[in-house]
Amino acid sequence: MTNHTRRRPLRIAVALAATLSLVAAACGGDDDDAEPADEPAEAEEPADDGDDEPADDGGDEPADDGGDEPADDGGDEPADEGAGGTLKVGILAECEGAFGGFNEDVVAGATLAFVEDGGATPNSTTTALDGFTGANVAGLDIELVGIGCGDDTADRIIQEVRTLVEQEGAEVVIGPLSGDESIAVANYAKDHPEVTFIDGIAGAQETTLQVQAPNYFRFHGDGAQWNAGIGDILHNVAGWETAAVIADDYSFGWTSAAGFIADFCGVGGEVVSRVFPPLGTTDYSSFVQQLPDPDEVDGYFWVVGGTGTNASLEAFVNAKGDLTGDQHAGNLFFSPALASALGPDIAGAYVGGFASYPADIESPEITAYLESADATWESFPAGAAGGEDSPPSVALSFGFGYGYYVAGKALNQALEAVGGDLSDNHSALRAELSSMTLEAPYGDVTLDENRQGIITTYVQQLVLDDESGDVVAETVALIPGVDQSFGGTFSADTPPPDRDNPSCETRDLPWAGNSIPVVDGVPQE
Amino acid sequence: MSRSPRDIAVALTAIVLIALPLFGSDFFVSFVMTRTVMLGLAASTIAFLSAYGGMVSLAQLLMFGIAGFMVGNAVGEAGSKGMKLGWHPWVAVVFALVVTTAVALLLGALSARTSGIYFLMLTMTYAVIGFYFFGQVTTFSGFGGITGIDPPGLFDGHPTRLYYAAVVLSIVAYVGLRYVSTTPFGMALQGVRDDPVRMSSLGFNVALHRTLAFALAGFVAGVAGVLNIWWNGQIDPTSISIGPTLDLLIIAVIGGIAHLEGAWLGAFVFVMANNYMRNLPFADTIGLTEARFNTVVGLVVLLVMLLSPDGLVGIAVRCRDWMARFRRSDDAAPQPPDAQLATADGGPTGRSAVPSHNTEGSIR
Q: Where in the sequence is the signal peptide annotated (chain B) (predicted)?
């Protein structure tokens, strides 16, 4: 007891020290990535700024105050000075949850854009997560103020985006990755007109079609757009009359399933069952049991992603029998990697498109892009390689990394076009983003009136490679000019995709029977 | 009437919180401290039930969430999830608090006859059921949650006002819960905590006392939940999943689960660690990234529990006692640490007798 009493002051001191260190961190500079020389350590507003009406507070430059940018402050941002200032950029990445494995991929994607266009130097050659320095685009120094850590939930991404914008002072945010996150961020964007948001690779339809934030841009398709054409092929080529759909129970799963349903039903097919397991489910047995048996339906369409893809398919094998290429198809998650876990019988399965094409389509632009990635880092643990150290091109040739790359490229191209002019809440920049044609390795992209990408999508098929015997993806069709309305199926007035929407109806889709065949990686135009 | 050091410390803290927007940065006030005060308000209901009712509840974040979901359903007008009733925000608040309190009353009644670990497990079950209910039933939410919820015009675009609302409601809740503990009902509740069998034999309705305490705590947690959805603009089932549910308990434990004010202190430590850990010197070097937050919070809890099982408030009490002993030149026996906490403010004593003259008006 006596000793215990004597040690009490020491313990108290330790506890106080721990608390004080956190307080010190709170009072310190908010910038943990950029050169501290540009940033005073003090994160607090000037004392004379005690106004609880930030809107009246003109003139607090985020660069000088740790980035405590009021939400409704029209903002005298340093970039308002035009070219020659600093543009603070934040990246909303994904370090946890079902897509946490793609953290490196997406940060690398955004980083590569600044390496190519701004001369940025990554801070590490073996990970993208250490950020970059030295980027300058259109006379603006690009400062990476932070990398947000999402976990595919709206709750978490809002905390992260608020930290990037309100604490770190990000003026442009690239991201997020996942569907529910993007809806939340798009709604957040409406309350922050001083910040420009460029979607990473999130594919929920509602993000742009319903929310319509004027400062939120998406230079890729949504989940439905990526599945354009696959229903037509499954019905008219593979001969499916009926199909069951199993999809992640969240906005992207619904959107992706909606694309297949609209396409398949549009050409005369019938969706007889829809099953929606929660994203990140580990035991899919109860959900697989809800699906019709293989002799009751012509085929199954899988929209299960992240950590659940293999688990759901294994549950099907355990409950209903082998997976065969003629009875199973899926969206972008249905990759050749499945074969290593589930066997080569999956060959023959059709797969919906994504932001980047399968490896069988080559072009000088794609080759240069992938070489650029490999020249930027030695290697890093890419999600596209199952978390193994791999050449950067592995990550950047898959849609997650590519989506963020495209977002960065869009920002840079628009900045160059407007000469780095960020005045009036980025009005010139946003006008350029809205109207420009983005020149990107996997195809040019323009935006519609909702600032949503109009894209060329494709359908691929898993096939056995003649030489190696491995299962590989082969492009079978291209569909140019797919917009978010999906041939008039969706609009701002139609219910967003969910468990019940869209209904299964025959529709006159413009690409039905009109897709461009691809043979040996060459479109047959 | 003389004031205890506890009252003085709480009053000083309240003054600092009220004055904070005058010298704190916008982000610190509108994000860090608003979140701190809201979480503290929710965690204070855990402390209230534990300190005065002997019930450690894991259902308080569910109440917090139910209120948020009800506001989201009531005011929402678009999107793929929720009832989208399009009501006026203030009507939505009343609706949310009525529903939350009613659910708390129901769940309290269901669990009133359990105690100890069984009560804890039962309330954890409520939390899990709540998570899956709002996740699976897209009529009310779905796993994606409800987004794009704006606060009433009074707070829309005025984060400092929302901060003040959180502070004022926290002060009201703190004073109110302490007052409740001194009422006949509160004294009887403490009697139920200490010896339910004796209280029952004296004619008190033990289950009803517990149920009403649970409902009151649910109402206060619901108030915090309303503030949260106004502040956050969205809510999803993850907000009330088992992780955040345990976080709220951890907040109460860090602060001191036997002390109401400990809830806000614990919330402050929790939010500061959550938000500024990444800025600590050498944090990256030793792998202290955002993804390691739970590890850090676990270490903080371990540290606090080793230093003081009574939480940070307990450390403060010990500091005060140590300084008092240090000043004494005689060898008088020191007061027990909680002696001053058990004054007329109704603080828990650990063994609170229930005087018979205080049972007037109690529920029998």
A: none
pLDDT of residue A26: 46
Rounded to the nearest angstrom, the minimum Cα separation between B54 and chain A is: 28
**B77 in A contact zone (CB under 8 Å):** no
The string of pLDDT tens digits covering residues A289-298 is 999 999 999 9
Higher model confidence: residue A490 or residue A77? A490
**3-class SS of residue B345:** coil
Q: Which of A412, A429, A450 is at the close of a domain? A: A450
- Residue A252 domain boundaries: 225-354+457-523
Instruction: Tell whether the model's pLDDT for residue A86 goes beyond 90.
Output: yes
Cβ contact, residue pair B143, A18, below 8 Å = no
Shared domain check, A271 and A390: no
pLDDT in tens, B79-134: 667 888 999 999 999 999 999 999 999 999 999 999 999 999 999 999 999 999 99
Report how far residue A84's alpha carbon sits from residue A370's, in angstroms, rounded to the nearest whole number. Answer: 31
Shared-domain flag, residues A215 and A94: yes
Q: What is the distance between the alpha carbons of residues B238 and A476, in angstroms, rounded to a whole number?
A: 40
Q: Which of A239, A201, A213 is nearest to A109 (CA)?
A: A201
User: Residue A482: in which H helix or E strand, if any?
Assistant: strand A471-482
Residues A340 and A209 in one domain: no
In a domain, A381, yes or no: yes
For residues A385 and A303, membership in a common domain is answered with no
Residues A274 and A166 in one domain: no
- Residues 289-348 of chain B with CB under 8 A from chain A are 289-291, 300, 303-304, 306-308, 312, 315, 318-319, 322
- Identify whether residues A249 and A194 lie together within a single domain: no
Residue A133 backbone phi and psi in degrees, to 5? -140, 165
At B317 the three-state DSSP class reads: helix
- For chain B, the domains span 9-240
Low-confidence ranges of chain B (pLDDT < 50): 337-362, 364
**A353-367: pLDDT as tens digits:** 999 999 999 999 999
Q: For chains A and B, what is the number of CB pairs under 8 angstroms?
A: 179
Whether A365 and A472 have beta carbons less than 8 Å apart is answered as no
Q: Residue A408: which H helix or E strand, with range?
A: helix A399-417
How distant is the Cα of A164 from the closest Cα of chain B, in angstroms? 11
Say if CB B310 and CB B317 are below 8 A apart: yes
pLDDT at B282: 67
**Is residue A341 situated within a structural domain?**
yes
The residue out of A425, A450, A475 marking a domain boundary is: A450
Flag whether residue A59 sits within 8 Å of chain B, measured between CB atoms: no
Q: Are residues A101 and A206 in the same domain?
A: yes
From the list B143, B159, B281, the residue facing A249 with the nearest CB is B143
Number of domains in chain A: 2
* Interface mutation target, options A16, A22, A31, chain B, most CBs of B under 10 Å: A22
